[in-house]
Structure formats: C-alpha cells, structure tokens
Amino acid sequence: MAQILSGKEVAAAITENTRRRTDIMRGAGQPASLRIIRVGEKKSDLAYERGVRKRAEEAGIDLSVDALPTDAPENSVAEAITKANTDPTVCGILLFLPLPKHLNEKKLINLIAPDKDLDGATDTSMLGVYKGTGEGFPPCTPEAVVRILDHYGIDICGKDIVIVGRSPVVGKPLAQMLIAGNATVTTCHTKTVNLPEKTKRADILISAAGHPNTIRAEHVREGQIVIDVGINFNDEGKMVGDVDYEAVSRIVSAITPVPGGVGSVTNAVLLSHICSKR
C-alpha cells in the first residue's frame, strides 16, 4: 500500500508556526485578526465559517464576522469590504464565495486590498502568481498542494508533474507555482485524448478535475506520487476525491486521502497568510 500523505499533519505544523508568529504580534500590541464577510446563511458557508473559526482559535487569530442578508444590495457589500480594508485592526479579509447572483462577484472581489486578500482571489493576487511580483497571496488550495509536497520532503525540481484540471483558481495557478519550483508541468483535463498515457508519464500526478473517479488504476503506475485535490460527494453522500483511492493506493508510492488531505491544509494556509508579510 502507498504511503498516506496526511494533510492533518501538515495543517498542524503550519498552524503551530502561525501561532508562534501571532503570539509575537500580540506581544507587540498588534493582535492578528481576520474579518469574514458573509452574504446570506448557506449551510455550506456556515460550516466553512465554523471550520475557519476553530482553526483561527488554534492559531491565535481574532475573528469577526460581517454577516449581510442574502438580498443585500451591492453597495452594502462594497461598504463592508471598504470598511475592512481601512480598518487597521483587520489583518486579513475572507469574502465567502460564491456570492448571490444579483451581485457582481468579480467587481466585489477586486475591491479587497491585495495585502488583505488572504484567499488570493483578486486579480492582483493572481498576477502575483503568474508574474512573480510578490503582490497579494497565492490561492490557498494550490499553495496547500505545494506545502504538502514540501512537508514530506518531495523535491519537485526537474520532476515531471501532470495536473488534471485547468480551473483558474486551482489548476492554472498551481501549474505556475510548480514551474516556479523548476518542475516540468503538463496540464491535462477531462477532454484530454488518451489521458492514461499522459498521466502514467508523471513522477507526480495531481488531480483537480472535480469529478469522482477521474483517476483510476489505469491512469497510474508504480513509483508515482498522487495528490488528490478533488472534493466530491458520491451517491451515498460520502465525501470522495477525484481518485479511486482503493484501487490507486495499491499501485502508487504515496497518495493524499480525501477527506484528510489537501482540504485539511487549505484553511491553515489561509490563516498563515495573515502574518506572512508582517
């Protein structure tokens, strides 16, 4: 069986490091703080909020929530963002997405000050990833993948890495971040012809397609490392990744589980951004 690359172990290490830094900030009279801006009360948003709050407590970060009604007008959401931007006690902003359809999501995202854009959602943050300007922050899920590889001592320099998935928030920025680490990256997707031929060539295979069983036994070979970014739910309501875990884990050398893999690291990465530039 493959080595299990536990995300919980990585998240704990990141959170411990963040806690050390936030303790220093608090001692200097500048406590770390996060402002969540939430529009509506979707169950998924409330569950996410509980998860972020728990991790924030562990990391020594104060958390406040600006909760607006589902039918809040755009100017009210913009005002909440501007208020958080200009509040010197707020170190970072997390705008829950997606927003209700009556709101201009792209416009509102780009109102967030880049140095408070913890989720790496603004155009300025994305530019920082693609051009290496250092502005803003990288998106948290791609960074979580990189942190997992680094934590387990998996060197990407010179490695052939295949990413299955081309979304603007995971696949594309992740490719740029891996290239920055001197990996040779191939991007595939669910429409790629003869996908197994491509995926078997990889030293490291990363699936971020967003579909269960995208990666099966025929897509992998012995000696590979597999990172499963997918979060999906099967017919029984069980959370699963993009990878057929039972079949693939019998073949490859190492694999991340779902749950307990990349998703476990994402919140820890987001909160680490609060003090990474301070």
Which helices and strands, and how do they pair?
Elements: E1 3-4, H1 7-27, E2 33-39, H2 43-59, E3 62-68, H3 74-86, E4 92-95, H4 105-109, H5 123-131, H6 140-151, E5 160-164, H7 171-180, E6 184-188, H8 195-199, E7 204-207, E8 225-228, E9 232-233, E10 239-240, H9 245-248, E11 254-255, H10 262-276
Parallel strand pairs: 1-11, 2-3, 2-4, 5-6, 5-7, 7-8, 8-11
Antiparallel strand pairs: 9-10
Helix pairs in contact: 1-10, 2-10, 6-7, 6-10
Helix content: 25-40%
- Individual helix count: 10
Judged by helices, strands and strand pairing, the structural class is: alpha/beta
What's the CATH C level of the largest domain?
Alpha Beta
The average pLDDT is 95
Instruction: Provide the β-strand percentage band.
Output: 15-25%
**What's the N-to-C terminus distance?**
42 Å
Q: CATH homologous superfamily of the largest domain - what is it?
A: NAD(P)-binding Rossmann-like Domain
Reading the helices and strands in chain order gives EHEHEHEHHHEHEHEEEEHEH
CATH architecture of the largest domain: 3-Layer(aba) Sandwich
* Shape descriptor: globular
Domains, number: 2
Q: And the CATH topology of the largest domain?
A: Rossmann fold
Mind telling me the C-alpha Rg?
A: 19 Å
Oligomer: single chain
Beta-strand segment tally: 11
Return residue spans where pLDDT drops below 50 for at least 5 consecutive residues: none
